[in-house]
Amino acid sequence: MKPILFAPETWNLSETLRMLAIAEACCQSFNPVFLSYGGRFTNMIHESGFPVHELEPRLTEEKAEHLVQIDRMEKKGDFFEVDELTQRVENEIGLLRKLHPAAVVTGFCL
Question: Which of 43, 53, 57, 95 makes the best surface tag, with the fewest CB within 10 Å?
Answer without folding.
Answer: 43
